[in-house]
Amino acid sequence: MHVRLSDTLEGAPETVLRALAHILLAKLYRKPIAASANKEYNRYVRSEPVSKRAETVRRARGTKRGLGPAGKVYDLEEIFEQLNREYFHGLMARPALTWSEHKARRLLGHYDAAHNTIMVSSILDAAKVPRYVVEYLVYHEMLHLVHPVKMRAGRRCVHPKAFQLDEARFPRLQEARNYMKLDL
Questions:
Q1: Judging by DSSP bridges, how do beta strands 117-120 and 96-99 pair with one another?
Q2: CB 118, CB 111: distance < 8 Å
Q3: Tell me, what DSSP letter sits at residue 43?
Q4: Using an 8 Å Cβ cutoff, are 91 and 108 in contact?
């Protein structure tokens, strides 16, 4: 058997490499993964230095493809600028903004810190979708620039309390969430 590992694991302690070997073999033979191996591996790959190194590698090697900010119905740059003025006093630097190439229904938007990009599912670029839904989604992703992901006790904290408090400032929050749950 030949196994290739990401170079982000270069220099990993032997205990982590042994844990990874156990995980890979367990998956190969469809056996249960030992909790201790899973814990050892996850603690290492979710650590701050390894997470930062992985983000640096993604930034250097990867690209973010999308359709650009001007959609058929909505312009993400115009929406960003309006939200920036309204909620951030016009002080937020604009990241790259783009509609996704695919009409995703599950992942309606995300902020990619490695590429400083907000991507919104092109399923929302439709006349039947109310503008406040797109505004809410862009606002939510803008908040990720204000409240970056942090590691707490070995876990990613994506939406901390401060994020949720800022998100609650959006006047049609519940209405937008309801629309996304029911109508997409």
A1: parallel
A2: yes
A3: H
A4: no
101 and 65 Cβ atoms separated by less than 8 Å:
yes
98 and 170, same domain (yes or no): yes
Q: What Å distances lie between residue 166 and 13, 32, 125, 157, CA to CA?
A: 40, 42, 25, 16
User: CB-side exposure of 92: number of CA atoms within 13 Å?
Assistant: 24
Which single residue is written with the structure tokens 């399923």?
A: 123
Tens of pLDDT along 44-103?
888 878 877 877 777 677 667 778 799 999 999 999 999 999 999 999 999 999 999 888
pTM of this prediction? 0.71
How far is the C-alpha of 76 from the C-alpha of 56, rounded, in Å?
A: 26
Residue written as token pair 């196994």 = 3
> Does residue 19 fall inside a structural domain?
yes
Query: Domain range for residue 23?
Result: 7-45
| Tally of domains in the chain | 2
Same domain? For 81 and 32 the reply is: no
- CA-CA-CA-CA torsion for 168, 174, 175, 176, nearest 10 degrees? 70
Residue 159 inside a domain? The answer is yes
Predicted local confidence at residue 62, as pLDDT: 65
CA geometry: angle 90, 95, 97, nearest 5 deg: 110
Amino acid at 178: N
Environment class of 138 (CB within 10 Å of its CB; exposed 0-12, middle 13-18, buried 19+): buried
| Residue 52 domain flag | no
